[in-house]
Amino acid sequence: MGTKAERKRKLILEKARGIFGEKGFKRVTMKDIIDACGISRGGLYLYYGSTEEVFLDVLRMEQEEADDVFAASIPENASPARILEVFLSAQKKELLEYGSVMSQATWEFASMPEGESVRRMLREQYGQALSVVEHLIGEGNASGEFECPDPHSAACIIMRAMEGLRISAVTMDMDEESVDREIQYLFEVLLKS
């Protein structure tokens, strides 16, 4: 279960995630987080010095959770095509459920002059996901599941399309059927041509 300090940090991050999801980034104060957690000001400042620090750890926690769910959902001896399907399903779930709530706060923070730390984190996450997708396409080519002449470009298109779907989920209320249709189209056109 972790140490008392780990449990306290987890509590702070869970409560802060809810507040950032409700209010965005700019309107959240340290007092909001203190009130939500039911801890003293000193109790919060023992772990975090600013809302920016809290927000960055919330994003890291979300990424770790998403990575854990993805890893746990891959069937044993899964083919590259199956792993890519699981990856895209995880992306779909995130953008339709919780991701769109935190996405607004993330974009808000990333657009601020002091948001370079979030922009750097997002670039790193994007680069890691891009590498995974490109590797899976290459493996799928080698196994005969895919016929994709340019795995890197296909991976870039898939990742940019997923980001576009994430934005659309926030701004246009996309439903699951629309997202499924677009993901299926990407899969068929880019990878099984």
What report would you give on this structure?
The protein contains 9 helices and no strands. The protein has 193 residues and is mainly α. The N and C termini lie far apart (48 Å).
List the helices and strands and how they pair.
Blueprint: H1 4-23, H2 30-37, H3 41-45, H4 51-72, H5 80-96, H6 99-110, H7 116-143, H8 151-171, H9 176-191
Summarize the structure.
With 193 residues, the chain is mostly helical. It has 9 helices and no strands.
Low-confidence stretches: none
Q: How far apart are the first and last residues' alpha carbons, in Å?
A: 48 Å
**Molecular shape:** elongated
> Could you tell me the number of beta strands?
0
- Rg is 19 Å
Which sequence of SSEs, written as H and E, runs from N to C? HHHHHHHHH
In what range is the share of β-strand residues? Answer: under 5%
Features:
9 helices; mainly alpha; 193 residues; 77% helix
